[in-house]
Amino acid sequence: MNSTAFHSADILIPKDCDMHKWSVIACDQYTSEPEYWDEVSTTVGSAPSTLNLILPELYLEQEGVAERIDNIHTAMDKCLADGIFTEYKDAMVYVERIQSNGILRQGIVGAIDLEKYDFSKGSTSEVRATEATVIERIPPRIKVRQGAPLELPHIMILIDDPDNTVIEPLAKNVSDDSKLYDFELMQNGGSIKGWLVDKNAQETIDKALCALADPDTFCKKYGLNDTPVLLYAMGDGNHSLATAKEFYEQLKKANPGKDLSNHPARYALAEIVNLHSDALKFEAIHRLVYDVDCDKLISELTDALELSGTKVSDQYVICSCKGTEKKLYINKKSSNLSVGSLQNFLDSYIKENGGKIDYIHGADTVKSLADKHNGIAFILPDMDKSQLFPTVIKDGALPRKTFSMGHAEDKRFYIEARRITE
């Protein structure tokens, strides 16, 4: 067992809780929509909830964040002291999520070995980032993890399993005896069920993952020679996994000579999902830029990327500003993807001129927010998910926030937890 980076974990699941109120959406969603989180707070009320154990990124740079983090740690300690969890030792959880669109998404919750993960560009580790990791985004998140006795994952990691050998067979072996939860998610999140995976099934999962990781099979699949195996590619929660990795590396540096090979912080709870699931639709993440001189930005962008309304390139961006919407083709590329060419310009422009940028799911949403903030909406083309593994293998991580797997309400909800202190 445990031949690859993914394996069983000691998983905590609440008992005797209203699971509808317990489970809330990933913290990196609705970062420009405080009303969403206000509605979640109203729904939860005083009930036990993961809302009290996570820091919505909406508040990450606001005043009072240190107090919020202290409150999170206090709430975690209280959950443990009150005994609200049942702990399942050496466990995996098979998950079936019915998304808001009615499509089934299957996954397995377990632990990722951070020793087998490297988020740096050009990494050849078994677990890799699929987009550029912004180092500056890690320290504020480490403050949440420091002093926290628990972690709750919204991390989703992809495997490239076209023959459905790892996750999908579990559907035939579930029973009411092993069901852990079954409930409706809040805020149009659909519904979710989870079952405990028995030891025989865990061994079957491990064998199937090892088969995918066979170097000869891997190289043949992608038409490569002697290339390090990429078995696990980040889908969602890239910066959360990077934070767990950096926290673990800092722990090692602070304890030279100490054997931390079995320390809980070496691992991070995550859900693996098959890239080929019908539920996974890769959608572009659009850009909202505001607190800028819109006319100046668009003028400089047009010059820098040689934008035109005539198709002479496969790269383009739709610009929506002040009630006007234009599809503009990029003639001077700085990346292999439209999002990369745009992002490279925006990073440079905002560094020199100031302004703010947010990453928004949904074209209608980003246009509405641009109107609200007197800003600019940049609407980007979708990426074909079949490009993901080959691109990461050959070119390294994609530009940050290149794609999203589905709509915001279909992102992972917090349910399971795990101890990260000895």
UniProtKB/TrEMBL annotation:
InterPro entries registered for this protein in UniProt: UCP033563
Top-level lineage group: Bacteria
UniProt xrefs under Pfam families: DUF1015
Record-linked PANTHER family: DUF1015 DOMAIN-CONTAINING PROTEIN, LMO2823 PROTEIN
Protein name, entry field: DUF1015 domain-containing protein
Protein's organism: Ruminococcus flavefaciens 007c
